[in-house]
Structure formats: structure tokens, C-alpha cells
Amino acid sequence: MSDSIRAENLSVIYRPRGSRRLLRQYLQDRLTGRQAAGFYALHDVSFTVPRGEGLAVVGANGAGKSTLLAVLAGLLAPDSGCVAVDGRLSTLMELGSGFHPDLTGWENLRLYGAILGMSRSELRERAEQIVEFAELQGYMDQPLRTFSSGMVLRLAFSVAVHAQGDVILVDEILAVGDAAFQRKCHRRLRALREQGATLVCVSHVSAMLESLCSRGIWLHHGRLVQSGPYQEVAAAFTAFINGENRHLWDALPDAPVRTPG
Asked: Which ranges of 137-178 does DSSP label H, i.e. alpha helix?
């Protein structure tokens, strides 16, 4: 089975902006190529995701999960290492970020679909399915500013999952709508994976995530701590969060810092 995603030695460095430095020091750093000190949001992270698999990315706040998704989505270039994503990409990140409040629901549907790479013919074929899934019949001729925040998220999610990407990146969005709609979203994602889509999910450890992902990776301070079957990775991370196996904490990496140079 071929890989949909291959990441090799990914590192991303965040450098502080607006730090107080003398103009002389700033110009000297620019001329010599030196860079301000920063920290690694990701440090030497490598993994693969076979086609049709589901990968869960777990970790505490600040572990580098969203940074990793941004790199996979092509929104952020790594400082070192490389990543290859094979196939059409669909992202469930920052849902609705391409919407405009003065456009109607239909107009935003077409706009967001185009952003996600859907052709005009695909949008025509799937428009009614998108609206029906989002449960927005009767609202789509109204400006988006008249929609509730939940309605906006439902529309964005529905467009994204009907884009039928080969690789789907999911960032903490399984809390869209009420409990019934969440279950509906979950069933849709599971069906897409059963149809051959590759999922990468960043979310809290849960039974819902377990049914979507067979593999997992645990990030801590930007470094890969554990990779393997999801249940094993989730159990290790949950034990860490609950304060169990405290004698093993010292083995976890500290936040790596990049010194100027």
C-alpha cells in the first residue's frame, strides 16, 4: 500500500517578533545572516500515513499539533525537512474562514467550494446534497450575516466533506453543532475513510476519534514521543495527562530552543 503522506525530519522554528534590539544589532544580524533566537514548534518529526488510513495526532496544548497540520496543508513551510502529500487535499481547519457575510448562503457555498478546489460542475452536482447535509434548506438565499454561528459552521463543514478529498485534515472540528449533528459529521468522516480517503485528525482522545483512526502519534514540545496503534498511543498520553507513571516524565523532551546563529 502506498503512502498518502510522508513527512521526514520536519522542523518549524518560531521566532519572537518585536523584541527590543538596537538598530545596529538588527542591521548586523541581517548582513551576517544571523537570526534571532526562537523555539522549535516542531523538531525533527518523521512519520508516514498509508493511503486510506486514519492518523490521530494527540498532545497537550502547545505540542505542535496545529503547526503540523498547517505544514501538511501547505500553509506553513518547514524550516527544515520535507513533506509530500499525494492526492487532492481537503482541510477541515478554520471552518468558514473564506466566507463573506454580505454574500448569500449559495454564493458562499460556491466560493468556499472553489477555494477547496471543487470545479463548477462538481458544485452544481453536489450543491443540494451540501445544503441538505447542513440542514439549511430555506436559508440559503439570505446573506450569511443573518446565519447563526452554528449554521455557518454546518455549511462550511458540509462543503468541506463534499469536496471529496483524497487526504482530509481535521483540526478540532468534531464539536460542530449539537450532539445529533456531531454524530452525523462523525458518520460522514468514517464513510469517507471507508471509501479510501486518508484522515489526519487533531482532537482530544475519545471513542469517536478511535473509530476514525487506526494509528496515532503523540507530540510533546514539538517532538515525536510515540507512534503506533491509536489505542496504545492514546493510553500512554492519557496516563501522562492523569499524572500516572510520573517516573517516566523525565524521559519526555524539554522544549527545544534554537540559539542565534
From this structure: 149-161
Other CB atoms within 10 A of residue 55 CB: 24
For cell 527544515, name the residue.
80
16: Cα separation from own chain's centroid:
23
Rounded distance, CA 41 to CA 68, Å? 9
pLDDT exceeds cutoff 60 at 85: yes
Model-level pTM? 0.80
Residue length of the chain:
261
**Separation between Cα atoms, residue 69 and residue 179, nearest integer Å:** 26
For the record, the C-alpha cell of 111 comes out as: 466560493
Distance, in Å, from the CA atom of 59 to the CA atom of 80, rounded to the nearest integer, reads 22
Whether residue 201 contacts residue 55, with contact meaning beta carbons closer than 8 Å, is answered with yes
**Nearest-angstrom CA–CA distance, 75 and 24:** 33
Q: What angle do CA 211, 216, 220 make, to 5 degrees?
A: 135
Query: Reduced to 3 states, what is the DSSP secondary structure of residue 21?
Result: coil
Higher per-residue confidence, 205 vs 121: 121
154 has pLDDT over 70: yes
